Amino acid sequence: CDLLVTAATFGLPVFQHPKPADEIARLLRSVANFPDRAHVIGCYALGKAQRVISLLRESGYDAPIYLHGAMIRLCELYEERGVPLGNLRHSLAASKSEMAGQIVIAPPSAIKDRWSRRLPDPVLAVASGWMSVKQRARQSGVELPLVISDHADWNELRQTITETGAETIWV
What we know:
Order of helices and strands: EHEHEHEEEHEHE
Helix content: 25-40%
Shape: elongated
Oligomer: single chain
C-alpha cells in the first residue's frame, strides 16, 4: 500500500480510549451506588445508543432500559433487522418514582432539557470519545463521562498506519 487516507477524529496522544466494557462497569457501579437516582446517558440515536445498550446487555444487565422518544424508532429498526436489544421501554410510560435506579438513554441535547426534570435526581452521563477531555465533561455538567467511541484512538491510528506499511499518509 503506497497511500493511506484516513480521518483522525481522535488523532492526538490524549485520546487513548479505555475498553468499553470497563466504562460500562463504571456505569453499573454508579447505578448500584446511587439506587435512588436515574442514570441518563446522552448519546446519538443512530449507532451509539444501540452500542451502549448492547454493551449493557453483554455485561449481564438485563433490567429494562428506558428510552427518550427520539431513540425508540431506531432501536426498533435494529431489532427488526435482527439485533436484539432486550427489554426497552419508553421513559414517559414510567412515573418519576419508578425511574429511581434505572438507566435511561437520551439524545445529548435532552439530558439537561425540560424532559429530564421528570427523572429522580438524574446522574448525567455522556457516552462519547470526547469525554476523554475532562474539561469538556465538566463544562457540560456531565457527572459521569463514559469514554465510548466508534472512532480509532491515537494508538489504534498509529497501529493501523504501521500495519498498512503506507509510504504516504493523508490525514
